[in-house]
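Try it yourself: sequence plus FE2/S2 (inorganic) cluster, in.
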Amino acid sequence: MAKRISLSRAARLVGVKRGTLQQQIRAGELKTFEGEIVLADLLHAYPDAQFEDSSMLERVEQIIEQATFINPDSSVRKPDNVALTSRIMSLSEELARQKRDLSRQKRLLGRYREFTGQLTEKIEQLAAEPDALRQLQAWLEQAVTNISVDDDTIDQPFVNETFLRVMSAQATVIPSNHEFFIEGAESILEAGLRGGLALNYGCSNGNCGLCKLRVVSGDTRKIRHHDYSLTEAEKGLGYILGCCNTAMSDVVLEADEAHGSGDIPKQSIPIRIRKIDHPNPEVIIVSTRTPRTSRLRFLAGQGATLSADNVGSAFYPIASCPCDDMNLQFHIALDKQDPIACYLGETAKANDLLTLEGPVGSFVLNENSANPLVFIAQGIGFASIKGLIEHAMALDVAEKIYLFWIADSDEPHYLNNLCRAWNDALDNFEYVALTTADGERPGDAIMQRLSPGKPADFDYYLCSDEKLRAGVEQFVESREIPTDQFLYEKI
Ligand code: FES
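Structure, out:
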């Protein structure tokens, strides 16, 4: 049977986004069979894919590093060889089976080709002979014993695909069919969040039971002790805690995920300031950290209220990705009317405590859409947009991401270098820095870049003031872009 691989693995193997393969499938350039791609079809579509480049080696080093974990009881770093060994063992068995099947097929094909060629030749030779039949019979007996068998080795793409399977287990979540990879000995929960999924969880350390999920197929292993007790019935049904288990093989998991802001509970968390940066005189970037056992569960694009004792409180968007739920970033305009902004900009220092309440907001990604994404930020509106972009990158499904950042001509884009780094490092990302003068006609500037695509083929996320909104809305209406493809958040 032809070797098939999942869409996620195929994307990793040839080094493209999963969304790119989905686009090719929609265009009829690639076929899927029960959600999988035939390896030979993939190689036909990507004949120039580099299978020997150094990224494989870098990947090994990275994953071996991730295969170590902190033992919470002893605080000693121990290599978790068991997870990797188990994956290698199960893969070796499959490899041996595949090789046997492949050899058998090659043997049969080789015999058939060689035999038919020689037979044709012999019949022509013996056509005029009086005892042709007897000679043919003798030749046939000899020929069958002489047929050589080409038991060749497995080709490089196949080896690389199996290599990826050794180094990481693939998890498929039902009913959503979301996929992510579990690398080294990281927990299923950590891997799921890193992969951009909004899994249900609470404490992250085995106390609350909120990360409970059911293993439908595949093998898992407990990597840390947990105080939360699963009932015998739950264990019998295959329930485990996602924050305390890793995967030993590819797994299918039944798990709860948040599908909208209403699915995330409000939380109140003490957070510590890690550092405060001043990228320009008008803006501060506040990096904070939650306690390890009380992280913030939120959706990208949401915000939270920050309070400081004896100062006050104010609401700010979270400018980071839920995939890093301990390290939260806030971009704050230094408004003299905002006591928290003044406190953070002038008095606060590293290690000071704040109280966070949230998350709040519905400016979140539509994960059901496969359209390319267009993000438009005005000034400090980049904070919400940054969270959405980082989340879209973690999900790794968008075929193309555009960022248009409009700033006042006398105030530079305060994280211009970061946006340019994304632009340089990611082949599906395009960054356009615009100034207010361009911003007066945002539709024209944007369409120039999106051309030759049709405006209605994209999803738009805008975070700006009302004036810019009116301009962009006019553009959206005039191009007959469906309203559910345009999401707005006021700065
Ligand atoms: S998140 Fe609380 S037990 Fe896993």
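One thing you can check immediately is this: Residues 77 and 320 are 28 Å apart (CA to CA).
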